[in-house]
Amino acid sequence: MLGYIGAMKIVHVASELFPYMKTGGLADAVAALAGTLADLGHEVSVFLPGYRTALEHADAKRAERTCRIKIEMGDAFISGDVWAFSPRKNLKVHLICREEFFDRGHPYGTEERDYEDNADRFIFFAKGAVEALRLSDLQADVVHAHDWQASLVPLFLRDAERRHGLTLAMKTVFTIHNIAFQGVFPARMFSRTNLPDELNAIDGLEYYNQINLMKGGIMFADRVTTVSPRYAKEIQTPEFGCGLDGVVQTRADDIVGLLNGIDIAVWNPAVDALLPARFSAANLAGKAVCRMQLLKSQSFDAKFTGPVFGMICRLTDQKGIDLLLANADFFLRENTRLIILGTGAKRYEDALHALAARAPHKISLCAKHDEPMSHLIEAGSDFFIMPSLFEPCGLNQMYSQAYGTVPLVSQVGGLADTVTDADADAANGTGLTFPATAEGLEDGLQRSLKLFADKPSLAKVQKRGMDRDFSWAKAAASYEQLYQDSL
Ligand code: ADP
After folding, report:
1. Among 34, 70, 202, 430, which one has the highest count of C-beta atoms within 10 angstroms of its own C-beta?
2. Where are the alpha helices (DSSP H) in 103-210?
3. Distance from the CA of 77 to the center of ligand 1, in angstroms?
4. Which residues line ligand 1 (CB under 6 A)?
5. Contact 172, 145 (CB under 8 A)
């Protein structure tokens, strides 16, 4: 195709889409990307499993059944329905429905373990999306699959084209939101794909006598993306590649990292209705009100004048909770406040509760999911701590900058791409960065005390962060460019 300009037909396939199903950043990223591309005038479709929460959502009241699908899964045929609705102009959401697979409380499993039939569920989903594309005769310019649950879409699409002798899409794109989750299943599940046997080999889906669905996406999509440039490089190394670094390396020429954006309608201190007061770079008075409210909410002295540190995250290894715990003495010793919001692994909840119990007047853990509280922490803190061991993109370091809260981040993935160290680059610094080790974090914490004591420098760092553009408009423009380049 020559110099493709103008509106494209773009199809996303993903296992999460805000507000119909969300467990993490994937849901927000797909929703914001699809919505922004639709607003730009492209014809956008998103395929999502027909979860109960999606079917019960008010938007789905207007859904219409668009087709009935019969999907070959091994030596059986499994049927389902496709329902579609349009939540906004140029955007259509298609739900691949089969109660047996998707009418459950959680998308992937219970607290203890993943569902036993996840290979069947998501192979059915990916095949269902391709079959629905075929039946609808949509003729997509780009089919864009996200994470392991949709990673076989590029392969199924080309396989369907070969079987039926037609073209379903010009190009395919696969995005890795987190390479730590790969969809690894017993080798016998390969039969469910009905793909040619040669793909059940080392240069196919085979992976240490099992099958690895994400490997299929990385190997067979026309373009591969990650959600930050640094992460695209990191996952080509054994330290970050989670066993797929060699596979990613084979696509080194076709892989690109495009930063996620943040939803500036929701995360903007100038209009944030969840805050007791609003503020902007030009007038920070409201930030002081938020700070007082935050201190009060934890029963801390509201007149405290030292630095307030905030942290919001899932309590998992990834988020560097061990590095924080290794620096417990800093918070016990120094005249600071530390407020953590997060749930997750019980051992971390217990350890953080124990830490807070040692100094209840200055350290607190809120072990719950609380959206308004997360806004108050972002607005009311002086510093935001994010010592992740790896971070494909990360959102809170961007929210922090938008809210004039100086992020303290480890130098990994999207954190390294979005925060500039104020000591290393005095003219452009927006935060403090350090190696992802306990000593690294200690160094960052020490430097934050110095920065806090130097109010003119602190104000400059805050303002530069607030002036940065982390909007999805910018992020979506890079995807648009990628699609056009690939076409
Ligand atoms: P990840 O997707 O790895 O969890 P991100 O930083 O990309 O990390 O996104 C996490 C999102 O979830 C952020 O918007 C963060 O504020 C939010 N979040 C995490 N834990 C909580 C919580 N306990 N309460 C409210 N929001 C939370």
Report:
1. 34
2. 118-136, 153-164
3. 39
4. 24-25, 312-314, 341-343, 369-371, 374, 393-396
5. yes
Ligand 1 centroid vs 315 CA: distance in angstroms?
Answer: 10
- Identical fold at 9-261+472-486 and 285-467? yes
**From 374, 377, 409, 419, mutation site for ligand 1 pocket: most ligand atoms within 8 A of C-beta:** 374
Residue 26 CA: which ligand 1 atom is closest? 2
User: What confidence tens digit (pLDDT) does each residue in 53-83 have?
Assistant: 999 999 999 999 999 999 999 999 999 999 9
What confidence tens digit (pLDDT) does each residue in 323-336 have?
Answer: 999 999 999 999 99
Cα–ligand 1 centroid distance for 33 (angstroms):
18
How many Å lie between the centroid of ligand 1 and the Cα of residue 247? 29
For 71, the 3-state DSSP assignment is strand
Distance, in Å, from the CA atom of 302 to the CA atom of 57, rounded to the nearest integer, reads: 41
Domain 9-261+472-486 grouped into CATH 3.40.50.2000: yes
Domain ranges of the chain: 9-261+472-486, 285-467
Q: If you measure from the C-alpha of residue 314 to the centroid of ligand 1, how many angstroms do you get, rounded to a whole number?
A: 6
The span from the CA of 84 to the CA of 11, in Å, is 13
* Architecture of the domain delimited by 285-467: 3-Layer(aba) Sandwich (3.40)
